[in-house]
Amino acid sequence: MKTILLTGITGFIAKRIAVDLLNAGYFVRGSMRSTKRVQEVNAAVAPHLDDPGLLTRLSFCELDLMKDKGWSDAVRGVDAVLHTASPFPGGVPKNEDDVVRPAVDGVLRALRAAQAAGVTRFVMTSSVVAIQHKDVAPGEELTPDDWSKVGHKSMGPYAKSKTLAEQAAWDFVKDHPEMQLTAINPGLVVGTPMDGNYGTSLSLIGQFLTGKLPLVPNFPLAIVDIADVSRAHVNALTAPGSVGKRFILADRYMMAPDVVEILRTKYADRNLPKRTAPKFMVWLMSLFDAQAKQILPIVDMNLSADNQATTDVLGITFTPASEAILAAADAVVRYEDV
């Protein structure tokens, strides 16, 4: 049986990956900044296992993206690294280095530790934001060969962190060609979480349901179900042709008002946004709101992406975006009592 180091196991995506790895027969060594959250992870994972005894294959270690301590021990005896750990801020940070530096330094710390231990297989969680923040021509379809342009007018700190971190990983592999890297680039990850500790991942759905956004800007969102994202990570470990590739994880792009309309099919009684915010209003908001400033350049921009390689190489049949959105809404209603 192979052992996988899964960094950031307390995360929304990583908890689902842990479940899928254990059910697939792997041993999992999950990293977290503090082992005080071990009970939380065990409680989240256990109900979803095919056999309760599989939980004995899950162990934990403490790692910090900004510190060397523990990394050499963490990679000792593992067969591959799934690196999901990266800051995911709920808003726009005052200092972008608070997001950028842990993302970049963390993936390099993980890669160096793996390379030094002779662990060559490395799958990292990147993001579609490392692909889409560029000048896009009308009708252009984004592909895994596209890269976001650092400094683009639509790029915020989070997108910058994911772009620079993935670029740093590929640069490292150029210098160490024995390393077998795969990048998984999901869009807005929705669907059913393993527990109620899902951080900011479903916050947009929650904002729609609770009336915190009375008007919604008309901007594109790449929608993907968490189950598909997890399966892509796990399948990448063994899929022929996945090494050295990037994979877009999104069923499709949808405009934010269309997401609201899907929510309305089941949650019409909620205080959902009733109108689309005109672009001039988003512009006015952008003068004092950092998030509106990031959205403004992509308002009314229809995006699309080529996810064929994800289907062909990783074997992912995407969950329809509408199903993933409603599953996320069900979870928000259940856990947050909105």
UniProtKB/TrEMBL annotation:
Entry's Gene Ontology molecular function annotations: oxidoreductase activity, acting on the CH-OH group of donors, NAD or NADP as acceptor
Family matches, as Pfam families: Epimerase
Domain NAD-dependent epimerase/dehydratase positions: 4-242
Signal peptide feature range: none
Keywords: Oxidoreductase
Similarity section: Belongs to the NAD(P)-dependent epimerase/dehydratase family. Dihydroflavonol-4-reductase subfamily.
PANTHER family on file: NAD DEPENDENT EPIMERASE/DEHYDRATASE, STEROL-4-ALPHA-CARBOXYLATE 3-DEHYDROGENASE, DECARBOXYLATING
Record's protein name: Dihydroflavonol-4-reductase
Source organism of this protein record: Cognatiyoonia koreensis
